[in-house]
Amino acid sequence: MVLHMSSLFLRTLREDPADAEVPSHKLLVRAGYIRRVSPGVYTWLPLGLRVLRNVERIVREEMDAIGSQELLFPALLPREPFDASGRWSEYGPNIFRLQDRKGADHLLGPTHEEMFTLTVKDLYSSYKDLPLSIYQIQTKYRDEARPRAGLLRGREFVMKDSYSFDIDEAGLDKSYQAHRDAYVRIFDRLGFHYVIVEAMAGAMGGSKSEEFLATAEVGEDTYVHCTSCGYAANVEAVRVPAPDPVGWEGVPAAHAEDTPDTPTIETLVNHLNEHYPRDDRPWAAGDTLKNVVVMLVHPDGTREPLAIGVPGDREVDEKRLGAQVEPATVEAFDEKDFAVHPGLVKGYIGPGALGLEGTTGIRFLLDPRVAAGTRWVTGANEPGKHVIDLVAGRDFEGDGTIEAAEVRFGDPCPNCDHVLEGARGIEMGHVFQLGKKYAEALDLRVLDQNGKLTTVVMGSYGVGVSRAVACVVEGNYDDAGIIWPRELSPADVHIVAAGKDEALFSAADEIARDLEAQGLTCIVDDRRGVSPGVKFKDSELIGVPTIVVVGRGLADGKVEIKDRRSGERREVALEGIVEAVLAEVRAS
Ligand code: ATP
Ligand code: MG
Questions:
Q1: CA 130 / ligand 2 centre spacing (Å)
Q2: Which residues form a coiled coil (predicted)?
């Protein structure tokens, strides 16, 4: 195939688009791969579509290789299956809902657990039909609260989702492992650096769950890994080891003290050290218990205040909290909310006001570090007063624990006695063991060996296909533009006719035809009246890994071949160009 720049539906831009913040978004728009339609909704221009198809091909090949079978569900789905699973309401405002002319509710599929489960139920009835693995590559719709970064978080995006169906847990383990192995091969081929981390099972329930995160500063996820053992987890999934309970013999009774002008933890700690010094060591922020109140919004719209007690040297991490309270969402507790709850004294909220036993009855969940016997300074529910020597288990109790405090690099590993390091990443794939959640909700049962009905055990596996296009760019670019890995590139070679002489154009075309005959795809920059400088710039921006320049050297029977990745150039005799390009393509 030969793509002529003179007619290719493409305009490259010199300027970054105004709304773009991350490199992949800027470059994909500037190089003419995608075009924004509305927030989080993009058009795939010809070159972009070619890259998307390449990602799809890699995903397809590896899914087919593990015996998964491709099918395609509609994106337009009726409401009923989602009522049956409970997700019509759980999704809240995150899905696109619409009605047909008769007023029947529909949605645009955000993911397809229900459809896969119901279709298997429709067609299969015996253990002899299992195991089964099926997948689709589908456009998904989610009304994301914050679409951002171009393809990285869209409202319309392409996902590969697959599901495994087994008769028992052992079967699920095998299916899960096969998928995990396929994902390793997919992401190795896609050519960006990634890590595999433990993940939250999230709204879908289930047990074992891992994410494939592309390591990237622009990522929305943070992960940690142990400096010694193999532990690695999305911070959302980190379990803080709860300290063993300690006795409180000899701990004085709790006492409220004046702490005027101590609106922050720092001012409070200074005040304590000045007026109520400890004998063993100075007070530190970690000795204070900070009680943060947020507003949960449940899928049915009900609003519930929630108080979270964390050591004062840590913030509540929005993403960790969000993952814990899903499908509810979290909003700030604002002045109006405080007005409704006069028992909450802003800046001085203490356990006495909280919990189902407390004066406000607001649900109160504690960080695992607030274990029985630990001793705290915390708000006294009166302006300008704190309580000292308040002992967990003796003086107060929460309504449970919650993993919502920030995880810090340097924190102890939950698995061994070393510390955690971490970085940011982009979630590219997610494998998890759904177990029986959907099969139970939708009554997917088959006859087992003994002729008894048994619930099918499922796994669910996703790859962000359109997100991968952006992710590949995040891992492969320089100041001049994109540098595609060979398998993803929209073409094998980009041929530039650099000059005015017609002979250059016909030579470039001839090279393209010869390469096409060898099965390669070529872009030929055959634009008349465009300077060589502009053509070189465009070739670097577009990012095909091999560039052939047909220029001045042609008079001596020479053309230039340039490696976009290393920048290396060399002259090659015109007769040898096809061989030389083929060698490049095969080498990488
Ligand atoms: P995230 O935490 O990033 O919102 P998710 O956990 O909701 O993702 P899944 O439901 O696990 O996503 O979807 C499977 C895959 O689809 C994800 O691993 C990700 O690569 C991709 N994906 C999810 N949401 C989007 C989106 N809004 N835009 C592009 N790709 C997405
Ligand atoms: Mg996920």
A1: 26
A2: none
Here the CATH number for the domain that contains residue 278 is 3.90.960.10
Nearest CA to ligand 1 atom 8: 427
Cα–Cα dist 209/434, whole Å: 9
CA of 61 to the centre of ligand 2 (A): 22
Q: Which DSSP state fits 500?
A: S
CATH of the domain at 497: 3.40.50.800
151 and 466 in contact (C-beta within 8 Å)?
A: yes
DSSP secondary structure letters along 514-528? HHHHTT--EEEE--T
- The total number of structural domains that make up the chain: 3
Same structural domain for residues 36 and 122? Answer: yes
CA gyration radius for the chain?
30
What is the C-alpha separation between 95 and 7, in angstroms, rounded?
A: 39
Q: Could you tell me the residue range of the domain that residue 500 belongs to?
A: 491-587
pTM: 0.90
* Ligand 2 center from residue 191 Cα (angstroms): 21
Residue 292 DSSP symbol: E
Give the separation between CA 369 and CA 200, rounded to whole angstroms. 20
Nearest atom of ligand 1 to the alpha carbon of 462:
14
- Ligand 1, atom 21, residue with closest C-alpha: 464
Same domain, yes or no: 455 and 496:
no
CATH code for the domain in which residue 163 is found:
3.30.930.10
Same domain? 159 vs 282: no
Three-state DSSP at 359 gives coil
Same domain? 282 vs 317: yes
One domain for residues 65 and 140: yes
Nearest CA to ligand 1 atom 19: 464
Q: Give yes or no for a contact between 216 and 231, defined as CB atoms under 8 angstroms apart.
A: no
Mutate to test the pocket of ligand 1, among 116, 427, 434, 463 (most ligand atoms within 8 A of CB): 427
Q: Does 241 fall in a domain?
A: no
> 186 lies in a domain?
yes
Residue type, position 17, single letter: P
Ligand that comes closest to the CA of residue 139: 1
Starting from the CA of residue 429, give the closest ligand. 1
Closest-lying ligand 1 atom to the alpha carbon of residue 144: 27
| Domain endpoint, select from 357, 386, 401 | 401
Residue nearest ligand 1's atom 22 by CA? 464
Q: Whose CA is nearest to atom 26 of ligand 1?
A: 153
Residue 177 lies in a domain: yes
pLDDT per residue of the chain (588 residues) written in tens, 0 to 9: 999 999 999 999 999 988 888 999 999 999 999 999 999 999 999 999 999 999 999 999 999 999 999 999 999 999 999 999 999 998 888 999 999 999 999 999 999 999 999 999 999 999 999 999 999 999 999 999 889 899 999 999 999 999 999 999 999 999 999 999 999 999 999 989 999 999 987 544 457 899 999 999 899 999 999 989 989 999 999 988 888 888 888 888 999 999 998 888 999 999 999 999 988 899 999 999 999 999 999 988 899 999 999 999 999 999 999 999 988 999 999 999 999 999 999 889 999 999 988 888 999 999 999 999 999 999 999 989 999 999 999 999 999 999 999 999 999 998 898 999 999 999 999 999 999 989 999 999 999 999 999 999 999 999 999 999 999 999 999 999 999 999 999 999 999 999 999 999 999 999 999 999 999 999 999 999 999 999 999 999 999 999 999 999 999 999 999 999 999 999 999 999 999 999 999 987
